[in-house]
Structures are given as C-alpha cells and as structure tokens.
Amino acid sequence: MADDVLERVRATGLLAAGGDVLVLLSGGRDSVCLLDVAVELGARVRALHVNYGLREGADGDEAHCRELCARLSVQLAVHRAHRAADAGNLQAWARDVRYAQAAKEAGDADIAVAHTASDQAETILYRLAASPGRRALLGMEPRAGAIVRPLLAITREETGRWCRARGLAWRDDPTNESDAYARGRVRARLLPALEAVDPRAPANVVRTAELLRDEAAVLDDVVDTTLAGRDRVERGRLAEMPVALARLVVRRLAEDATGALCARAAARLDDILALGDHGALDVGDGARAVVEGGVVRFETTPPLPH
Predict the structure, then answer these.
(1) For residue 205, which of 5, 68, 117, 121 is within the disulfide window of CB 3.0 to 4.6 Å?
(2) Residues 244, 126: one domain?
(3) For the residues of the chain, what is the DSSP string, one character each?
(4) What whole-number distance in Å separates Cα of residue 270 and Cα of residue 6?
(5) Residues 255 and 195 placed together within one structural domain of the fold
(6) Are residues 195 and 234 in the same domain?
(7) At 247, which CATH number?
(8) pLDDT-derived band at 184, boundaries 50, 70, 90
C-alpha cells in the first residue's frame, strides 16, 4: 500500500526529488501524509502551520506539528493569526490568511496543499449545488500557479492507512464534520447518500472532473481561435454563433476585462444581444458589456457614485 501511494504521487511530477516545496501542515491526516510523502520522495521540504486560535485544541495542533516536523527533520514556520471583528466569512478569512502567509514563506518554492480525491468529490458536489455551469464540475486543478495538490488521486482512507502504516499520528478537527458548514453537510450526508446508490460514486465524480478538464482545454482553444487575440466581437457574429460558443466567448471577454471569474456573464447573452448596436449592461461579477457601433466589448463596472 505504501509503495503504491508513493508511486502514484511520484507519477504526478508535483513533488520532484530535490525540488523546493512548502507543505501547508494542519496536523490532520491528509497533511501529515503529504509531509511524509514529500520527505520520502526526496523533495526539499519546509512546512507552514497556521494557528487560528479559534478552537480549544488549536495549541495542541501546533504542538503536534512541531513534534512531527522535528521527527522528520523538516523546518517549520508557525503563523498565529488574529481575526478582526469585521473579517467576514470565517472559512474565507482562514483560507485567505493561509495562502497569504504561504506566499510570504514560500519564496520560489511550490506550495503543496493536502487536498485528496475525497476533497475533490466534495468540492465538485458543493460547487454544483451552489453555482451552475461546467466550471463547477471541473474541480480543483493539480497545479494552479505555485499551488500544487499532489494527493488529488489519493483518497482520505488511503492517507489514513499511510499514516497508520508509518506510525504517524494526526489531529482531527471536529469542525470538518460539523453541520454548521456546507462542506461538512456534503461530507456527512450527501456523499454517503451517493455511495449508498453506488460505492463508486466519489471515484466517478472525480473521474468525470478529469475528463471535463481535458474537454475544457479543447473548448478554450476553440474560443482562442474564435477571438484570434481580439478583446471584442461583432454583435452580428456573436448572434450567429452556436449558443454554447457564444456564451463561452462572452464569458472569456468579461473575465479578460475584469481579471476575475465572471460566472454570470454567459447567462446574459440574450440581454447583451438585445442591446442592439449601442448600449451597455452590467452583467454581474464586476463586468459591464458595452456595445458600440455593433461591436461588443467588456469593461469593469464603474463604482457607484458617493
């Protein structure tokens, strides 16, 4: 089992021997497995633990990470976060703090996150429930810039077996199973319900995402060819395109203009075409469609006047 996990992670090419990597270490089974696998594969490993101080066991998690890194001869950085009263959504704040601190610590190193195939299935199901569109089905990428996810083909059960076989303890975070968070409800209720239909359900969800990512690359090439480097498109041409392609073109133009995801832009295709040869329309997500002389382009939505 251990050799199988090691070879599957090695095959991703995301933890190369001699490569610099910063592992985000929570102390849970997945991140403990990731840290140990990275060391076993010969990467030059450092670790980062963020102590949010939000749970009774937070200091215990930090102590566990210190002990583990000492055992594995891994340099550990610990960041103690302090949440302001107006910090907003707790999970979003924690994620932002973690990645911001990781970017500071990593330098030129990759930042390795312990997302597993189990996390991938939960992410896809959550996104599908929360937002329409094919991107909800693509899941997390193995690499996104400096962020790497070497365990995306490994299940949570396998990381647990790895840790037990290697004699590595881990810390459980009870909030991961809490009904207070949507992700916890997906994990505790939705996935078990799907597995009752077919035990292969999580694996099938993950495999579907892999296939769709391959197909998405083809669609991106089609959009590239259609736009041919332009940042605008003739309204008449847009109206003549197959609807699916027109929606992809609209979304691409909106996202290029804003530099951010614009999931709602594609759904406003009919409204944009209805503007005629002149007009403007805010399509959401900070994007505005502008039609001038029958040519459609996008810009950022101007701020509201004070």
Answers:
(1) 121
(2) no
(3) -HHHHHHHHHHHTSS-TT-EEEEE--SSHHHHHHHHHHHHTT-EEEEEEEE---STTHHHHHHHHHHHHHHHT-EEEEEE----TT---HHHHHHHHHHHHHHHHHTTSEEE----HHHHHHHHHHHHHH--SGGGGT---SEETTEE-TTTTS-HHHHHHHHHHHT------GGGG-TTSHHHHIIIIIHHHHHHH-TTHHHHHHHHHHHHHHHHHHHHHHHHHHHTT-SEEEHHHHHHS-HHHHHHHHHHHHHHHHSS--TTTGGGHHHHHTTTTSEEEEEETTEEEEEETTEEEEEEPPPPP-
(4) 50
(5) no
(6) no
(7) 3.30.465.60
(8) confident
Domain boundary residue, one of 182, 200, 218: 200
Between CA 164 and CA 175, with CA 170 as vertex, the angle to 5 degrees is: 130
Give the count of beta carbons closer than 10 Å to the beta carbon of residue 69: 22
Domain residue limits at 234? 230-300
Residue 147 resides in a domain: yes
Confidence of residue 177 (pLDDT cuts 50, 70, 90): low
Distance CA 40, CA 43 (A): 8
**Residues 79 and 107: beta-carbon distance below 8 Å:** no
CA distances to 50, 140, 199, 233 from 291, rounded to whole Å, are 48, 35, 51, 10
297 pLDDT exceeds 80?
yes
- Rounded to two decimals, the pTM is 0.80
In tens, the pLDDT along 57-89 reads 889 999 999 999 999 999 999 999 888 777 777
Question: Do residues 150 and 39 share a domain?
Answer: yes
**CATH number of the domain that residue 32 is part of:** 3.40.50.620
Residue 223 covered by a domain = no
The encoded tokens of residue 77 equal 């950085």
Identify whether residues 146 and 39 lie together within a single domain: yes
Structural domains in the chain (count): 2
**Residue at 306 is within a domain:** no
Same domain, 279 and 160: no
